[in-house]
Amino acid sequence: MEAVRLVEVGARDGLQNERLTLSPQIRVQLLQRLADAGLQTLEAGAFVSPRWVPQMAGSDEVFKALPVRPGVAWTALVPNLRGLEAAIAAGCREVAVFAAASEAFSQRNINCSIDQSLRQYQQVLVRAREAGVSVRGYVSCVMGCPFSGPVKPQAVAAVSASLFGMGCYEISLGDTIGAGTPAATRALIQACRQVVPVSALAGHFHDTYGMAIANIHTALEAGVRVFDSSVGGLGGCPYSPGATGNVATEDLLYLLDGLGVRHGVDLDAVIEAGEFIGAQLGRPTASRVARALLAQCTMA
Ligand code: HMG
Ligand code: MG
């Protein structure tokens, strides 16, 4: 099987939902450690309202402090043109816009309807193209909404097609509440690949119900080759009550190693980065693989 690309979202999706707000300096240290481990695409912050997500305040300082590293893309979430301009001013060369497949979630997360968000993103894409900034697109609630329940694959496909049509180079399918199962994942990918090439689809699985690894395996079999993950399984979503973190990067690497799939990332170095950030947050890792391997080190 050809190589898989990982998008490390711990410093954004992870930290945006932690009780403690970490300083930009600590966030930069985490990102540097993760890049040292071989991760090449890293979400480093979000240019959103600090009233809505205080944990991401100071993202401009994070970007200003991050060095240019050949082969490494530091990326940011932006909800509107204002966020894009702030990201560009901070030196960011790649952003992500985030729409939802559920109206209720769109209202709670970004205070507007799906259609309104897509119209705003159209403007973001035009301006980003002018500025030479690449744009990734997220679709949230792809296998269920915390407020309105079931979401049809066709609804996800429609939003994915809009984002891809306006110029997003990749569409990341977000199981925000981690409720998906392999069967639902298969149906989801089948619907989305009718409108977006499978090579431009990514999987973004939260692990709330413990299904993330099974869903990733299913998505791999369906041809997806890009996955988002979070060191130590950090994270969740502030507007998705009860959602836990993304699949842990360590667990994803262990799966890929077991399947013999190339990824270019050093598992031990990611575990060390997870230890570093866990100590800052005062919380143990949520990665089963990190826990198992760390326990073996203690016994040795
Ligand atoms: P609003 O209240 O409708 O907008 O928020 P507004 O235009 O009335 O502005 C409200 C305030 O925000 C104003 O400031 C604006 O200046 C400011 P105030 O007068 O109150 O001091 N503002 C901004 N500040 C900084 N950066 C900006 C910006 N824009 C306006 N870009 C808004 C609309 C979109 C701003 C708000 O709803 C928001 O920031 N939401 C962010 C929500 C968020 O970050 N959610 C988590 C990320 S999504 C996610 O995690 C899912 C994902 O992981 C995939 C998955 O798992 O499914 C991606
Ligand atoms: Mg997420």
Q: What is the makeup of the main sheet?
A: 8 strands, parallel, barrel
Walk across the major sheet and give the strand order: 1-2-3-4-5-6-7-8
What is the helical fraction, as a range of percent?
A: 40-55%
How many extended strands? 8
Radius of gyration: 18 Å
Order of helices and strands: EHHEHEHEHHEHEHEHEHHH
Give a list of the ligands: 3-hydroxy-3-methylglutaryl-coenzyme A, magnesium ion
CA(first)-CA(last) distance: 34 Å
Strand content: 5-15%
CATH class: Alpha Beta
What's a concise summary of this model?
The chain has 300 residues and is α/β, with parallel strands linked by helices. It has twelve helices and eight strands. The chain has a single domain, classed as Alpha-Beta Barrel (TIM Barrel), CATH 3.20.20.70.
Notes on the structure:
The protein contains twelve helices and eight strands. Strands 1-2-3-4-5-6-7-8 form an eight-stranded parallel beta barrel, surrounded by seven helices. It has one domain: TIM Barrel (Alpha-Beta Barrel), CATH 3.20.20. It has 300 residues and is an alpha/beta fold. The relative contact order is 0.15. The radius of gyration is 18 Å and the shape is globular. Bound molecules: 3-hydroxy-3-methylglutaryl-coenzyme A (HMG) and magnesium ion. The site of magnesium ion has 7 residues, from loops.
List keywords for this structure.
300 residues; alpha/beta; TIM Barrel; 12 helices; globular; binds 3-hydroxy-3-methylglutaryl-coenzyme A; binds magnesium ion
